[in-house]
Fold this sequence. Notes:
By secondary structure, this protein is mainly beta. The protein has helices at residues 8-25, 32-35, and strands at 36-47, 50-62, 67-80, 84-100, 103-118, 123-139, 142-149, 163-169.
Amino acid sequence: MKLIKWNKSTLCALFVLFMCANAVSGQNASGTQDRVHFGGSLGLSIGSGFTNIVVAPSVIYDVNAYFSAGVGLQGSYVNFKNNFESYIYGASLIGLVNPIEQIQLSAELEQLRVNTTFNDNYKDDFWNTALFLGAGYRTNNVTLGIRYNVLFDDKKSVYNEAFMPFLRVYF
C-alpha cells in the first residue's frame, strides 16, 4: 500500500483555510454565517502510567441541505510509561451527506504523521493514511454512528481496529 504524503505547504494551506473559516463565518453575506459549523473533539485518558491527550478541531460548510464539506486538524500526545512516547498530528478532508434528516453518511480522508520514540531509543516515524466511510443517526447537530477505515493495515496503523464508533457535534 502506498501512503499519500502531504508536504508542509499542503498542511499549512489546510491550516490557513481552517483559520480563515472563522473570518468567513463572521460575515453576513447571504446566509454564509448559517452555513459554517465548528466542531471537533477533545480527549484525555490518564491511568496507571498511560496518558493520551487529543485535540481535533474541524469546520464544515453546508453546500446545501443534503451535503456538507470541510477540513479538520488533529494533534495527539500519547505516553505509555517505560514503553513509548508518541506525537501524532495531521489533517483531514470531510464530506457529509444527509439523504434524510435522521441519517448521515460520511467520508473522511485523514493523513497523520506519527513520531514514536521507544524507551530503548528506537524511533518509528511514519505517515498513516485513513479513508473512513461511515453512517450515523442524526438529531439536530449531533450524530452518533460507526465508521470503517477502508485503508486499515493492522501491521502499520495508528488505530487498533478498522471499525470505530463516533460522536460528531457541530455548532
